[in-house]
Amino acid sequence: MTINTPNGFTLDNTGKRIVVDPVCRIEGHMRCEVNVDDQGVIRNAVSTGTMWRGLEVILKGRDPRDAWAFTERICGVCTGTHALTSVRAVEDALGITIPDNANSIRNIMQLNLQIHDHIVHFYHLHALDWVNPVNALKADPKATSELQQMVGPNHPLSSPGYFRDVQNRLKKFVESGQLGLFKNGYWDNPAYLLPPEADLMATTHYLEALDLQKEVVKIHTIFGGKNPHPNWLVGGVPCPINVDGVGAVGAINMERLNYVSRIIDQCTEFVANVYIPDVIAIGGFYKGWLYGGGLSGKSVLAYGDIPENANDFSADQLHLPRGAIINGNLNEVHDVDPRDPEQIQEFVDHSWYTYGEPGKGLHPWDGVTEPKYELGPNAKGTRTNIEELDEAAKYSWIKAPRWKGNAMEVGPLARYVVGYAKGHEDIKNQVDGLLRALDVPVNALFSTLGRTAARALEAEYCTRLQKHFFDKMMTNIKNGDSNTANVAKWDPSTWPKEAKGVGMTEAPRGALGHWVKIKDGRIENYQCVVPTTWNGSPRDSAGNIGAFEASLMNTPMARPEEPVEILRTLHSFDPCLACSTHVMSPDGSELTRVKVR
Amino acid sequence: MADRILILGIGNVLWADEGFGVRCVEAMAETYALPANVRLLDGGTQGLYLLPFLEEADALMVFDAVDYGLAPGTLKIVEGDEVPAFMGAKKMSLHQTGFQDVIATAQLLDVCPKRLMLIGCQPVELEDYGGGLRPQTAACIPEALEIARQKLAAWGSPVEPGRTSAPDLADASIRRDAYESGRPSEKDACRIGDDRFLPGAR
Lengths: 597, 202
Description:
The structure holds two protein chains of two kinds. Chain A is an alpha+beta fold. In chain A, 37% of the residues lie in helices and 14% in strands. Chain A has 16 helices and 18 strands. Chain A has a four-stranded antiparallel beta sheet with strand order 5-4-3-18. A three-stranded antiparallel beta sheet of chain A has the order 11-10-14, with no helix packed on it. In chain A, strand 15 (498-507) and strand 16 form a beta hairpin. In chain A, helix 4 (100-126) packs antiparallel against helix 12, helix 5 crosses helix 6 and helix 7 (196-216) runs antiparallel to helix 9. The two termini of chain A are 17 Å apart. By secondary structure, chain B is an alpha/beta fold. Chain B has a single domain, classed as Rossmann fold (3-Layer(aba) Sandwich), CATH 3.40.50. The interface between A and B is large, with 60 and 57 residues.
């Protein structure tokens, strides 16, 4: 049957059905089903979260000042972002302002997380969709050295001997049967296009990035008091500043600030000399493969983040842009109001929840999380072992959030499309530079590769912002302000009887919002709308498909039984299912199963 | 100089017995006065973030809930080279960058601690989001701590009863007592998933 969706896609589910479950190398658990035509081109896509979501309900009745500690635990990756979003929501509800230093430190931590996550995503979760580490064993180290010096002349690690050593180490690792990290690959699939030298260079940087990321996260240990799961505080940050101190427990002294400064420099160098050149080099080999754009050229959403000044979230004061673009009209960027009950709504007609009536959307403040698990009449298999979903009925544990009824893509590419459309100077310069380097038109941005490239550009932009806020904080401290927390409204007796608030951030993988209602000093309702809820959403009542689904449409697969192309595009969103849905797979199996029906 | 020993609790405290490892480490801090070369760490749901801590350790002791197909509430001790294989035997936690991958990565970078020990517990219940440890699982904690005490002595760091101030443990609001006693009632907060996740409901 052929269906034309309101958001401009033609779905045809008559062809061969391919089921990928679970999608590997992501946080959490997701499943994807597609139909391909007789040419192997994807003509229908169904994305589903196979875990139940329930963070909201366990926060009922808790102290709102503690919510960050719970939300930080829902995920294995963006813990700090959830905590930041949570304290912002509670501060918004209770009218609590934070001091300047707290704003700078929060920004440094949030930017640090962006940079860390983008690097780890590219090298450790996504690169293997483009780079073939087994092929790297065939590379000539001398030619690899020449390639390195050409694409990244400022990177000191570039000698033939260095690449030979890495190649030997890799060989030993592979021969010892420890392929572990590189397992589940389709290493002889024709979708891999790099020459062995580029594969060796990128695999070498996979190792360098591992070393670097160990250092990067130490910023969280310093400002958060501990890592993983750093500490946060409603009203500021929990680390006092005492520049003259010598190693007092918890206090930030000059020695620690210098350490932070060194890490910021390390990030800056790696991103400029390795990450960006790698993306351009790899992109050069794949620029003929511009699939996967999905909603990115049509409908994108960003809440914006990184306020220049404490407590000022107006759009023109945010370094990461805010705005919504719909129907591909880049000439008009709409402002986004998370409080407006008509703007952000979640629908559940195709999700395993119920609101009691069909077609209804609920704003997060009025959100309801009531499970209703039922399979459609055309589903195959049983309730406990689904062979094939029926996407005409309920088919996912992810709700379908919509902005004014539109399915939206969120994430680095969405932020960059919004920034570009708004004429944001830094973003525009970066994007134009990239397009020139790759010699591609601006439309090339609306692709899987564009998503991956936008993430790299954003990492670079974030390193500059990180330095900016470090300097800003140091100036402030030198001027005698070492205040990091406002505790004037810490005592619940100072709070109104009832209050509601919203906290927004840009998590590495996209727009993140927490909505809280407080009554008598306790949480009455808490709803998170996370980036992967936007991107991984199922169809809505009007039939709009979500961003994952849209991105897979019309992509040709070299070998349908080896879903390299599907993984490549889904991974480009940096999906994180752990917080958009919950519960582990029934058998805990990690290997991706692919079934062709 | 004494070996640097890292005692790591991993798992998600929001998932009932998945919190076993983190709760063991909290209990260690309440039970023993640990010397300075022994570090307690709440690893929570993290994967790669743990790498820098492994790098700084000569010996690693991990508490975790892992499925060995044993009777629920049974401890399983694994040492040395067998640790990574056992931890990957069956993935059941939300930390998808599984700890097995963290160890493999540490080995690839040649920073893996020389000595490894896993004190694992066969969980009773995982499918209870927002729930705490089941009594059978909680009852394993004293035995797990005693095994840890003996191993620390064998590793050249005998420990005395007492308390340890450990800054790397979970925030007070999410420690076991506060977390379990503050849980909303079943009436207020739905606790069920669906047929596939509910034990016995088929």
